[in-house]
# Entry
Amino acid sequence: MMFGLGHRGTTNLITRALAAVGKKIETVPDPTQIHYHLPSSPKHPNGLEIKVWRKYEDFVDELKAVFTQESTSKGLQRFYDECWRVFNSLNSLELKSLEEPRYLLGEFAKHPLACLTLASFLPTNAGDLSNKWVDDEEARGFVDVECFCWSTVSAAMTPMINAGMVFCDRHYGGINYPVGGTGVLAELLAEGVEERGGVIEYGCRVTGIETSSSSSEASTSTASSTSSPLRAVGVRTADGRTLRAKSIISNATRWDTFGRLLPETKVPKEEIEFRDRYKKSPSFLSIHMRVDAETLLRGHREGIKGKTRKGAHVNNSKLDDEELQCHHIVLESWQQMEDPRGTLFVSIPSLLDRSLCPEGSHVFHAFTPDWVDAWTKLTPEEYELEKERVADEIVARLEAAAFPLLSKSIISREVGTPKTHRRFLNRADGSYGPIPSRKPTGMLGMPMNTTAVPGLYCVGDSTFPGQGVNAVVFSGFGCAHRVLADQGKLPVVPVLDGAFRKALNAVRGAV
# Structure
């Protein structure tokens, strides 16, 4: 689900990133973000079927048709209206580094109301407002799964600023699928960087971050000046080279950066405190399938007829309601949402881009959160058998809940586990990123791009504003801005920089 590929406002961050290196990409608009298949209950004995339509008003109508009690539907709309307050504030600002006080003062001077609105939401989680406005337990469960689908935690643990961006950009900029697949985004960015004199090395494994005594080299960074005796000056590679640079930026997870690339003996106190506030989220088990298109779609039509006969909610006012959607989430039990393999995700991108697979077939990607521990003590033979057993189980669950005839449609299948994610994505335990160890105070506990080691920056899901496509792109914009400021290529106010960094550290350490 690709956010940030719109063409309006300031939150279309992928479009802006591509434009910065002279590139653009063809996309296909998705009519929905997700089609939810949710548990049955006394109020909804045949389960809940909810589509998040691209047009916000259609989505509100969908909620009203499902949650018919007026107070519940009004409460849900009030919650999403609060999300729009966050989004509209973000969408009026030029999104750069929140660690640079000169930029913040400039944005405050231009957009004081938007800045104050965002500041008021900084300590707030989505669950705080869901509990405030939504009186129905099942409707609050829906908000939980809305958050879980991109943050892997419930609304109570999801910062409201993240929720505001995700829940509204899907309607404002829309979900847009890159023609040719999401890998095209990386290829275009790489081309643009190389065309501007940059060098990109592939298959080049970094084994460590090179440091020196910070007193022996002049620091170019005012934001990173700390008590750390070390300064990052380069990286070591598996082929024996040391590549030196003024600034080292790590897109590895926080646990890989501090503890593997920098040994435990050099991990700063601030990173030990981070491990207390956050833990690794689960990884995923993925099933990539090529399926027969006619069989899959025939099963979908039969499923629609069956649900109609049972009296399940089917919104026939939408002309495309009976069309199979690209993205799905299946949840059979509210209590198992956060359990390993409790929530099932599906993506069928060839419904939007027919170039992705041979004629007469579809790409069918099913995935579910899972932990690496369940896969680490198996022999190679046991590992292969367990992959197929679990995949069969998940296909059967999907077939029963949402995709009749799925098992009969499969042409080929490949299964990846959290060990696969760990190996090929080079992430600690294959983790999707950090999640709070306890209820967070909004976004105030998230680490920023600068670190306690001068010259070393972090970017990606382990930094503000966290997980999700647009969030990690936001962290990239912020990191680039902070690095340029530290290298003297953008104007700063040194006195403000130092004081502001100390204040941010104090706030983060107190939550």
Notes: The first strand starts at residue 27 and ends at 29.
